[in-house]
Write a structure and sequence with these properties.
The chain is an alpha/beta fold and 619 residues long. It is built from 27 helices and 22 strands. The strands form 7 sheets. A 9-stranded mixed beta sheet has the order 3-1-4-5-8-9-12-11-10, with helices on both faces. β21, α23 and β22 form a beta-alpha-beta unit. The chain starts with a helix and ends in an 8-residue tail after the last helix.
Length: 619
């Protein structure tokens, strides 16, 4: 058993998580206390650790309070006392409701971000619960919210789990400020302002923050405003809610957006524009911080943390995504513009991973939100400054977008050559629609064929996962995803390349059921399309409406906020389960239900083809 003294000494390379560890550093009180719904893993893939190390790098004494107990006498919240500057609060790496519940609203039995994979170590609506407790215990302290849960709830939004429109998280949480998006720049400025004697009102002038104000006067003397329909209007009118979303999405997709305002009651939620996209040099600096690259030792007796086991040998090479998928929160949180690390920074991190005592030779990912967007941006950034389209590759690839894959190919090759690296696989999803073109000049210039060859030959561990999401053109249009014909084209190239290299690897597609516009006809056609390709699907999920995405807005409103066209969406448990049944048409227990549904829509021939013993009908 580790004794107390040895335990304390062993944690010095982690930020302190107990009063004893803090005292070991000779602090009388911390400058900042960061509260998180996750177990504490000191690694650059986990937001609370990044924020802690960034604050440490500017001389701010920062303590971590991971997964405090909110159901007892609240001693966990009191252990560090009052911080000198502020409390920072995050639900963790995931929205706590997505972490806790399935799309069917069933309680999950595990938590990948908790030691031992055990559930029950964070509350529902963790950010709000933590903030309310701290406000009651430390009434005068400044509370700053951050992370995905706060970021995507910064305005009024539809809450799937409550099935109603709710106000900005600022209102119920009683917090002073939200840092939205990737928070390294604003959190440093917040600390600097407060350390120099600044007040709460001084924080309202900073970029990339949201706050509540009783008045608009004097806040924006020289800037314009985008005023959204108020919370009360959104509550009473779905058209007003849709208008608010549309205005927010258009503005937030700009490189230089203006201030966004939404009235709540007698006051206003105000969102300041973000900082410019982080530079390569700034990103490299973050990844060079002295992370311990491991969970805190306190968890050693509680079992492995699944999320850590998944990423500990992977390398994040960029952030941001210009894909703009309707159901995804990445662009609204990380931004549409891609920020990439330098090769030098990435290689240095690979070497750190290689030198870990438990490294067995396998780098499990070199990726990001989408694996193959490394170093991609607009050719003429002046054109990008005037653009508000949500995706740079849908409905077609922007002519101003740089899609050169040679830097990524070169990076892969460099990592393969590092001593003791036996295998490098790409775990992040790739956007195959960027790799397919009829323009041979474009293909040659940007290395599409070379990338496909390099990926398949060297960087797949038997299976490559991609996300066509659906086969219906109507559904895919709403998802802002490419035609299913492109998936077929890519599968053909994938199979052809495997044969050329003498490999027998699989292409595994992801699909979503119950997305807006997906109905029984669409799911029946999906079953046929995938069966014809020889698939018995396994990588599937049911659509989960998460705050402030286009798909969620359609789910709630029943129409497209841009066209006002009515859109069917499966909402009941029965409807949703029925759609999922079509993924598993090949299971004997589903046959009667599927035949009955196909009969209702008069798809008699499809029923015969699906259940024919002679599957040559699908070849």
């Amino acid at each position: 058993m580790i004794n107390k003294i040895d335990y304390t000494i062993s944690t010095l390379k982690w930020l302190p998580i107990t009063k004893e560890e803090m005292q070991k550093l000779d602090w009388t009180s911390p400058d900042v206390v960061l509260v998180s719904g996750d177990s504490y893993i000191d690694h650059s893939s986990f937001g609370i650790s990044v924020i802690g190390r960034v604050l440490e790098s500017i001389g701010v004494n920062t303590a971590i309070n991971p997964q405090p107990n909110w159901r007892d006498d609240l001693r966990d919240f009191k252990k560090f006392g009052t911080p000198n500057l502020f409390f920072g609060i995050s639900s963790g790496s995931m929205d706590s409701m997505v972490n806790h519940y399935t799309a069917m609203k069933r309680l999950r039995s595990n938590d990948a971000y908790t030691a031992g994979g055990n559930s029950g170590f964070r509350p529902d609506y963790a950010t709000t619960i933590y903030s309310k407790i701290i406000r009651e215990l430390f009434q005068e302290s400044i509370i700053v919210l951050g992370g995905i849960e706060a970021s995507m709830r910064r305005l009024c939004h539809y809450d799937y789990w409550l099935d109603k429109v709710v106000p900005s998280i600022l209102i119920e949480s009683k917090a002073d400020l939200i840092v939205y998006g990737m928070g390294e720049k604003p959190i440093k400025e917040i600390a600097k302002v407060l350390k120099s004697g600044g007040t709460k009102s001084d924080l309202h002038k900073l970029p990339q923050v949201a706050f509540y104000s009783d008045t608009l006067e004097n806040n924006f003397p020289n800037s314009g405003l985008i005023v959204l329909p108020s919370y009360e209007e959104c509550l009473s009118s779905k058209k007003k809610f849709a208008e608010a979303f549309r205005l927010f999405e258009i503005e937030s997709n700009k490189i230089t957006p203006t201030v966004i305002v939404q009235k709540h009651g007698s006051g206003y939620v105000i969102i300041n524009p973000p900082y410019p996209t982080i530079s390569t040099e700034e990103l490299d600096e973050i990844y060079s911080l002295p992370f311990a690259h491991a969970p805190h030792p306190k968890y050693s007796k509680r079992g492995a943390i699944p999320a850590w086991e998944m990423i500990k040998n992977s390398i994040n090479i960029h952030r941001g995504c210009f894909g703009g998928c309707s159901f995804c929160a990445i662009a609204a949180h990380q931004g549409k513009q891609v920020a990439s690390r330098s090769e030098k920074s990435i290689i240095e991190e690979v070497n750190k991973v290689v030198n870990q005592p438990d490294f067995k030779g396998h780098i499990t990912d070199l990726g990001g939100p989408s694996a193959n967007m490394y170093r991609m941006k607009g050719v003429n950034l002046e054109l990008c400054n005037n653009c508000s389209r949500p995706s740079c590759i849908f409905p077609s690839k922007c002519k101003n977008l740089e899609t050169n894959h040679f830097p990524l190919i070169n990076l892969y090759r460099q990592v393969r050559e590092i001593a003791n690296v036996k295998h490098v696989t790409i775990g992040s999803g790739i956007r195959y629609d960027m790799l397919l073109t009829n323009n041979t000049s474009e293909e040659s210039k940007n290395g599409y064929r070379e990338y496909i060859d390099d990926l398949i030959h060297h960087h797949i561990s038997g299976r490559l996962k991609v996300a066509p999401e659906h086969s219906s053109e109507e559904v895919l249009q709403l998802m802002r995803k490419p035609s299913f014909a492109l998936f077929k084209d890519f599968k053909h190239k994938f199979d052809q390349t495997n044969r050329r290299f003498g490999l027998k690897q699989q292409l595994i597609p992801y699909f979503i059921s119950s997305h807006p516009a997906s109905n029984i006809v669409a799911m029946a056609n999906l079953a046929e399309e995938t069966a014809m390709l020889g698939y018995r699907l396994e990588q599937i999920q049911d659509f989960t409406p998460t705050p402030m995405t286009l798909s969620t807005t359609i789910f709630y409103c029943g129409f497209d906020p841009y066209t006002l066209k009515p859109i069917y969406t499966a909402k009941s448990k029965v409807e949703k389960q029925l759609q999922q049944t079509f993924f598993f048409w090949y299971k004997p227990e589903n046959r009667a239900v599927i035949e009955q549904e196909l009969s209702k829509i008069k798809f008699f021939d499809l029923s015969k083809r699906l259940f024919s013993k002679n599957k040559t009908n699908f070849r």
